[in-house]
Specification:
- Two copies of one chain form a homodimer.
- By secondary structure, chain A is α/β, with parallel strands linked by helices.
- Chain A has two domains: about 90 residues, Tetrapyrrole methylase, N-terminal domain (Cobalt-precorrin-4 Transmethylase, domain 1, 3-Layer(aba) Sandwich); about 180 residues, Methyltransferase, Cobalt-precorrin-4 Transmethylase, Domain 2.
- Helix content of chain A is about 30%, strand content about 20%.
- Chain A contains eleven helices and 13 strands.
- The first copy, chain A, has a five-stranded mixed beta sheet with strand order 5-6-11-9-10.
- In chain A, a hairpin with a 2-residue loop joins strand 12 and strand 13.
- The interface between A and B is large, with 51 and 51 residues.
- Chains A, B: Belongs to the diphthine synthase family.
- Chains A, B: Pathway: Protein modification; peptidyl-diphthamide biosynthesis.
- Chains A, B: This is diphthine methyl ester synthase.
- Chains A, B: Keywords: Methyltransferase, S-adenosyl-L-methionine, Transferase.
């Protein structure tokens, strides 16, 4: 049997009782470590679970999937693994847990008012994709919020090391809310220069979230301009671009903004605010 | 301190270790019982948690919020309660867990390819709203999947009992995938009659899900027409209307369809299927 066990977002105790029992009974346990970050670290999890964990990074999951399936146990989350497992006659089961996709609801924005989720990637000097902005525009046009998942660079090789075939990796990088906001501000600036109708401006109300579910979770709401200069501390960070806001959502966001944070909001009718 | 503890979707052991510890330490524990259904029942939860639970239905949460806050502990999930608590000087904390909003990913459709979530309500003879169809249309136009949350009627009074002030409640009703599909088929039929451009047809590939996360979870994929006659058993049910499908998503959906289930899918390019 191949189990996919969600670990939760905060610390070791965010695993479900069912998930913990399964981990303790399995013959081999892999720890998926490339779509997220281990806030508490592998050692802390090993101690709490009472089990040795095999770190499964992207290389391993993509290239050594068959090895993971020999057995078969896993803590990673891939349709590909499911299909390979079933193909090999191995049954699977998912033990669900919180993910950033539903835990962002803690900021007070209603989950069913979110549109398509977007990913914001680190720009380089030569690669500055803007496709996420166009998706945000579509969501905003429909009054919907946009959850932006921010880029994670783990086990990346420099171009030089890659070309020389040296398995030397750069330090991991996690995009901050501030960095994401800076990139968005630049896109807004560029589009304004080109005379385009804007999806959002410096004044659009956004929400920055860091370490959701952890003891030191940090949430900040305010204009995009404000979030570009906020420091929410260690990763992981996520950013939400608001759509239309219900008064109850506004009241919740006020908990995470300074006195001036939401002053760009305008009421369009008794149940709707926009920015 | 007011805690909001997610209970998970399957059985009593789907609570997180952290959540269980908190429930066992709190002076009063409420069980929110109107946005979902207790697959295992209050008694089973009480036995597993080792605590007496106070059933909090909609009436109680809306009308007796202050009573809940006297203390203050809770297992419900409302911005309103958060705001009341903070207003009364009571701190709060959220213990996250899986919800249908992220657990639907178990069918193999990618969560970031979902658009706005819609609710499908029970039609009556005189009230047949179609607004959810228009939202599905917007999502489909952008190639996005739509999660449809299906209506729950709990503690509803008949019109007669309501008018006579009698607190007699109808048996609870939970919309099935089949019922939701029937309503959608009727809307498609009506719109076709009116000559409208259709958002979806009888042939659109959908996914029906029942009791997600529970031992007897049931998933069925196929055309809307097929889902209208499927029986997924006991509640809760959810329905997904697919948008554009990635080949890996199609491979996953094949796990939940019969041999003929996905024959209406057409490949538009090497990475996209539509129906």
């Amino acid at each position: 049997m191949l189990y996919f066990v969600g670990l939760g977002l905060g610390d070791a105790k965010d695993i479900t009782v069912k998930g913990l029992e399964i981990i303790r009974q399995c013959s081999r346990v892999y720890l998926e470590a490339y779509t997220s970050i281990l806030t508490v670290g592998k050692e802390a999890l090993e101690e709490y679970y009472g089990r040795e964990l095999i770190l499964a990074d992207r290389d391993m999951v993509e290239q050594q999937a068959d090895e993971i399936l020999k057995g078969a146990d896993s803590s990673t989350t891939h349709s590909d693994l499911v299909l390979r497992a079933l193909n090999a006659g191995i049954q699977y089961r998912v033990i669900h847990n919180a993910s950033i996709m539903n835990a962002v609801g803690c900021c007070g924005l209603q989950l069913y008012n979110f549109g398509e989720t977007v990913s914001i990637v680190f720009w380089t000097d030569t690669w500055r994709p803007e496709s996420f902005y166009d998706k945000i525009k579509k969501n905003r046009d429909m009054g919907l919020h946009t959850l932006c998942l921010l880029d994670i660079k783990v086990k990346e090789q420099s171009m030089e090391n890659l070309m020389r075939g040296r398995k030397i990796y750069e330090p991991p990088r996690y995009m901050t809310v501030s960095q994401a906001a800076e990139q968005l501000l630049e896109i807004v600036h560029n589009r304004r220069e080109r005379g385009e109708e804007l999806a959002m401006t410096e004044d659009t109300v956004c929400v920055g979230l860091a370490r959701v579910g952890a003891e030191d979770q940090s949430i900040c709401s305010g204009t995009l301009q404000k979030l570009a200069s906020c420091d929410l501390g260690a990763p992981l960070h996520s950013l939400i671009i608001s759509g239309h806001l219900h008064p109850l959502e506004v009241d919740m966001l006020k908990l995470f903004s300074g006195a001036e944070g939401l002053k760009t909001l305008k009421m369009t009718d008794s149940s709707t605010y926009v920015s």
